[in-house]
């Protein structure tokens, strides 16, 4: 199983003096190879073969570890630019405990069980990432003794060499322990500090970019002015006031229609990007972070999808981030056979229980120069990491993030999932293509986004108080001068097929867009470093415009219905009311046409007949969106940081599959 950052203090367990190293997994093949190696261990080794054994694992031959495996691991290390130790550990051919016991024996020093560490004596002001990357520290053990512990990483230069042994021998008090054990002990000590940093760093260091502080005074004055003006106008001249109000909202409708029609007109189908061949030694360490909360039903599917990612094992780390009280998910993970690529990180119950807080907490545990995020229900294309890395490799440092397309895999489930599929196709294939092509700000998806680590840190990471942290981070990247690009290999996920679940999810999204608009329209954060009017206009359109259209849509329908009934009853309408009816009918028909055109343009051809059958239900779909919008407004004032969880089920076996 992968390393677990413990929640509670471990029960002390004494060392096992004289215990033989235990290699994992114990298989018949490995047993036969070990038995064969014992029979020939004293035979003279061929000098050429001996030279191919990486020094980081050569000493394992003295513990009857098969020379064949040592040679193969060394060849993998040369090809991947790693070490033999990293390859053996990554492929599960030796346990971490067995390797470091053998290393300690080779160096002539003691081995300390990780469970024997009671306290790490380190500075309290040390940053979380720096503390967790320590390879040596003075530690107090459960027996009361204090001694320095050394936990070199498998790829540490010189590990296992004679020089390494000589330097260790100069410090007779030093002992060796497993790196995961030392890091787990450090994590137990600083987990409260890490939790507080995850919650409060952005709000403390960049308060104008944090949703924690809510709306500003000018937002209140603007809202009060609009409400007062509407109330007075309706009392004096209701028809003219309603016509003016609908005319103002029509600007948002027309802007949305124009954006979608332009995206549809300029859309180009992009085939999968051809991948070039590179040596594994050029590939960097890649971190995959998955935030999990009450996800036990989909854990098995998730692990299968993550194991399918094509990337060198020794250069891939997968952080599974769980709340410490989520026993069901932790139990489900414990039942999986997790190799060393996986590490379970438990988040303390501090501050808001949100996904961005979990991501912030996991960031110090992640050491890759490239980081990507997935959700529990995701099935990323196996070559998605490879494509993202190759695009980053060919670009300069201003390319801060890459968004992979999200595809709804169960569009045939019912009319709701069909519309969700249309919506995602329009967004990830149409609108984002338009925005990235022109260097405009991009509201990122909450999953399958690949980042340069430096860009995340430069932007202050995620806002734990924003329930659409993805869109918010996309706009902050733009403000910092970073670009966002697209890659072609998609991620599949199933959409909610029940209206109640869809409603809760959409409520959270709209509430997050309100939060994000409030944050990015503050006077102290009104412009990016380089003022660009088109980008600011797009930001307001995508946030305020989308919310306004959702909130106003039912009133538009109601106005049309009332005026239609009045016209049928009386046979005529005053000029102002007739103009209002024409305006609202135009808004509805143009919006319907624009959404349908972009959705049908970007959806896969085999699904177009199904989409055409369900398009007449689009007005109903929008009414659900309006209901979610008004729920979001209420929650923004009553429960701004509430994260309404979307429950997930195992993947629909009849859904879409990757073409690999």
Q: What is Rg?
A: 29 Å
Poorly predicted runs: 1-30, 32-50
Helical segment count? 23
Work out the number of β strands.
16
Cα separation of the termini: 28 Å
% residues in beta strands? 5-15%
Total tally of structural domains: 2
Mean pLDDT: 87
Question: In which order are the strands of the major sheet placed?
Answer: 1-9-8-7-10-14-12-15
The dominant shape is elongated
Q: In percent, how helical is the residue content? A: 40-55%
Oligomer: single chain
Question: What do you see in this structure?
Answer:
This protein is α/β, with parallel strands linked by helices and 660 residues long. The protein has two domains: 3-195, no CATH class; 233-281 and 372-660, no CATH class. 51% of the residues lie in helices and 10% in strands. It has helices at 28-39, 47-51, 55-58, 67-80, 84-90, 96-107, 128-132, 162-169, 179-205, 217-236, 238-266, 299-307, 327-334, 355-362, 384-393, 415-437, 453-458, 469-479, 499-520, 533-570, 575-602, 608-614, 618-638; strands at 3-4, 110-111, 117-121, 136-141, 146-150, 175-176, 286-292, 316-323, 342-347, 370-374, 379-380, 399-403, 406-408, 449-452, 483-486, 491-493. Helix 13 (327-334) links the parallel strand 8 and strand 9. Helix 4 (67-80) packs across helix 5.
Brief digest:
With 660 residues, this protein is of the alpha/beta class.
What is the topological layout?
Blueprint: E1 3-4, H1 28-39, H2 47-51, H3 55-58, H4 67-80, H5 84-90, H6 96-107, E2 110-111, E3 117-121, H7 128-132, E4 136-141, E5 146-150, H8 162-169, E6 175-176, H9 179-205, H10 217-236, H11 238-266, E7 286-292, H12 299-307, E8 316-323, H13 327-334, E9 342-347, H14 355-362, E10 370-374, E11 379-380, H15 384-393, E12 399-403, E13 406-408, H16 415-437, E14 449-452, H17 453-458, H18 469-479, E15 483-486, E16 491-493, H19 499-520, H20 533-570, H21 575-602, H22 608-614, H23 618-638
Parallel strand pairs: 1-9, 2-6, 5-6, 7-8, 7-10, 8-9, 12-15, 13-16
Antiparallel strand pairs: 3-4, 4-5, 10-14, 11-16, 12-14
Helix pairs in contact: 4-5, 9-14, 10-11, 11-16, 11-20, 11-21, 16-21, 18-19, 19-20, 19-23, 20-21, 20-23
């Amino acid at each position: 199983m992968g390393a677990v950052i413990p929640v509670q203090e471990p029960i002390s367990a004494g060392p096992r003096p004289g215990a033989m190293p235990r290699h994992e997994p114990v298989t018949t093949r490995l047993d036969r190879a070990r038995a064969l190696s014992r029979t020939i261990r004293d035979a003279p080794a061929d000098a050429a073969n001996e030279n191919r054994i990486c020094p980081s694992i050569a000493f394992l031959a003295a513990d009857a570890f098969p020379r064949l495996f040592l040679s193969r691991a060394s060849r993998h290390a040369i090809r991947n630019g790693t070490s033999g130790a990293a390859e053996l550990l990554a492929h599960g051919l030796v346990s971490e405990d067995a390797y470091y016991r053998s290393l300690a024996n080779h160096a002539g020093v003691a081995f300390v069980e990780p469970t024997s560490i009671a306290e790490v004596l380190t500075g309290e002001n040390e940053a979380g990432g720096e503390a967790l990357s320590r390879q040596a520290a003075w530690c107090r053990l459960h027996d009361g003794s204090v001694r320095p512990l050394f936990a070199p990483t498998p790829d540490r230069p010189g590990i296992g060499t004679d020089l390494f042994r000589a330097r260790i021998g100069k410090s007779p008090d030093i002992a060796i322990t497993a790196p995961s054990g030392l890091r787990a002990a450090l994590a137990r000590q600083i987990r409260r500090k890490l939790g507080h940093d995850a919650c409060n760093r952005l709000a403390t260091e960049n308060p104008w970019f944090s949703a924690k502080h809510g709306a500003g005074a000018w937002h209140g004055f603007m809202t009060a002015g609009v409400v007062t003006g509407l109330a007075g106008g309706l009392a004096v001249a209701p028809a003219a006031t309603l016509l003016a109000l609908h005319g103002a909202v029509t600007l948002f409708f027309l802007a949305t229609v124009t954006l979608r029609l332009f995206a549809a007109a300029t859309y180009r189908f992009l085939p999968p990007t051809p991948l070039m061949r590179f040596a594994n030694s050029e590939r960097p360490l890649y971190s995959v972070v998955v935030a999990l909360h009450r996800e036990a039903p989909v854990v098995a599917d998730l692990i299968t999808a993550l194991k399918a990612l094509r990337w060198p094992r020794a250069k891939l780390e997968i952080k599974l981030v769980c709340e410490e009280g989520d026993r069901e998910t932790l139990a489900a993970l414990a039942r999986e056979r997790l190799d060393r690529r996986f590490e379970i990180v438990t988040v303390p119950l501090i501050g808001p229980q949100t996904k961005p807080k979990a991501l912030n907490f996991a960031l110090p545990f992640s050491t890759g120069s490239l980081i990507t995020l997935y959700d529990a229900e995701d099935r990323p294309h196996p070559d998605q990491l490879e494509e993202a890395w190759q695009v980053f490799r060919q670009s300069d440092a201003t390319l801060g993030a890459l968004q992979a397309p999200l595809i709804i895999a169960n569009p045939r489930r019912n009319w709701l999932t069909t519309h969700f599929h249309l919506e995602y196709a329009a967004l990830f294939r149409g609108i984002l293509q338009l925005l990235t092509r022109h260097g405009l700000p991009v509201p990122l998806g909450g999953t399958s986004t690949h980042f340069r680590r430096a860009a995340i840190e430069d932007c202050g990471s995620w806002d734990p108080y924003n329930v659409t942290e993805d869109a918010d981070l996309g706009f902050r990247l733009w403000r910092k001068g970073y670009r966002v690009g697209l890659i072609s290999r998609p991620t599949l996920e199933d959409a909610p097929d029940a209206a109640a679940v869809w409603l809760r999810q959409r409520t959270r999204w709209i509430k997050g867009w309100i939060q994000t608009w409030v944050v990015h329209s503050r006077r102290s954060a009104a412009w990016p470093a380089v003022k660009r009017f088109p980008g600011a206009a797009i930001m307001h359109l995508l946030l305020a415009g989308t919310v306004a259209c959702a909130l106003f849509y039912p009133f538009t329908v109601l106005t049309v219905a009332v005026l239609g009934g009045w016209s049928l009853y009386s046979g005529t309408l005053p000029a102002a009311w007739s103009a209002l009816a024409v305006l609202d009918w135009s808004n509805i028909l143009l919006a319907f046409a624009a959404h349908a055109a972009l959705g049908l343009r970007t959806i896969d051809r085999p699904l177009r007949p199904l989409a055409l059958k369900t398009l007449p239900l689009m007005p109903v779909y929008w009414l659900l969106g309006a209901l979610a919008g008004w729920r979001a407004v209420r929650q923004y004032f009553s429960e701004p940081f509430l994260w309404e969880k979307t429950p997930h089920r195992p993947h629909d076996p009849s859904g879409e599959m990757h073409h690999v």
